[in-house]
Fold this sequence. Notes:
Elements: H1 7-29, H2 31-49, H3 53-57, H4 61-81, H5 85-109, H6 126-145, H7 159-179, H8 195-198, E1 228-234, H9 242-253, E2 260-265, H10 269-278, E3 286-288, H11 291-297, E4 302-308, E5 311-317, H12 324-333
Helix pairs in contact: 1-2, 1-4, 1-6, 2-4, 4-5, 4-7, 5-6
Amino acid sequence: MPAKRDYFLLFARYFVGGLFLLSGLIKVNDVRGFAYKLEEYFEVFYKHSGIPFHEIFGPWSVGLAGAIAVFETGLAVFLILGYARRFTAWSLLLMILFFTFLTAYSALTRAVSDCGCFGEVIKLTPWQSFAKDVVLLILIGYIFLQREELRPFLPSRWLPWIGWGSWVALAGLTTYFYLYLPAVDFLPYYKGQNLRKALEPGPSGVPLITDYVSTRFTDCGVDELEGRVILVVVQRLEALSQAEIERLRAFLSSVPPGVKVVGVTASPKEVRQRWPQEKGLSGLCFAPQDQTVLKALLRSSAGALYLENGFIRQKWPWRRLPSGTGAHRWFASS
Length: 334
């Protein structure tokens, strides 16, 4: 007589697997954004405990973010496949216990407005995040108790190749999206956005973007919402490497006449005034901009946006900045 199927276990397995897969892929896509969220948590823990989490773990935030993203997504693949049942069940249980503690802490202290579980895609309040984790804890607890009943989704000989192969692929994707830009941009400064319209009051009377300060209101006097403009984005001028500076210099020397150039940075005024002259970019003016805005503008330490009458036509991280013939060809076709 065939064994009776546990339909609740099937539901828990695929629901948890699907949710972890979605959450993990969002983190893989925007690993820098997840790293920024971890840094926010480190600051909060420091303020509440006095332990310098931000100094201890801050320099490793990107590595931690990437590792968590790959681990979470890889576990989802293992669970759906029914591979490495004990390792998967134990790992899921420990992970959800940690996440539940984190969201409970956020909800009780109100220190973080959004847990960052689903990045910029789905915003949850701390209490919503905590409720989600309680439900997941119940489901994962059942999976843990019934872990020996998890049946492979595919023939056993294929499971190691698909399972561990997915971890390798996820690690590669995470690294790629960190070095360049997310495959899908869920932030308000996405390619194709009408920045002018986003800064105007919407139907509710509130603009889509409220914290961006236009460069026309600064000493630079360049209106980035009019005509063709290169908006150079640098989080901290004083932190740029020589490779970043050389790539930026080569790009700017290839910008054709008729295209205005202006920069934005979170560096202090004295650095903004001194740095261009020191680096041989005396014609480049940097306007002040909040670092949170810069992180949303471009998921890179430095790079540029190309705008046409307020529309964001292109975004480049510093590693992808075109120069020479490549830049001339790009501007000629734009």
